[in-house]
């Protein structure tokens, strides 16, 4: 049974609002996964100079700052885009 099925044997279709909510949820999940992968890749490449079984103090600090900056920058961009689209 797919996520759009109601579970009953009738042929009733989900409302457009239900479908839109499902699509928005799936898009948000895909965006979050893409965001995390991008942060992981960029910050690893920038901060981890000698991959091993643990991080050095400087690598840990760098990675933490990198993730914080990436989240902050993304937040600023999203707020700007959202405020532009509501004008």
TrEMBL record:
GO terms for biological process: protein insertion into mitochondrial inner membrane; protein transport. GO terms for molecular function: metal ion binding. Keywords: Chaperone, Disulfide bond, Membrane, Metal-binding, Mitochondrion, Mitochondrion inner membrane, Protein transport, Translocation, Transport, Zinc. It comes from the Eukaryota. GO terms for cellular component: mitochondrial inner membrane; mitochondrial intermembrane space chaperone complex. The keyword Membrane applies. Pfam families: zf-Tim10_DDP. InterPro entries: Tim10-like, Tim10-like_dom_sf. SUPFAM superfamilies: Tim10-like (SSF144122). Residues 22-81 form the Tim10-like domain. It is found in: Mitochondrion inner membrane; Mitochondrion intermembrane space. It is a peripheral membrane protein. Its main location: mitochondrion. The twin CX3C motif contains 4 conserved Cys residues that form 2 disulfide bonds in the mitochondrial intermembrane space. Belongs to the small Tim family. Mitochondrial intermembrane chaperone that participates in the import and insertion of some multi-pass transmembrane proteins into the mitochondrial inner membrane. Also required for the transfer of beta-barrel precursors from the TOM complex to the sorting and assembly machinery (SAM complex) of the outer membrane. Acts as a chaperone-like protein that protects the hydrophobic precursors from aggregation and guide them through the mitochondrial intermembrane space. Heterohexamer; composed of 3 copies of TIM8 and 3 copies of TIM13, named soluble 70 kDa complex. Associates with the TIM22 complex, whose core is composed of TIM22. This is Mitochondrial import inner membrane translocase subunit. It comes from Kingdonia uniflora.
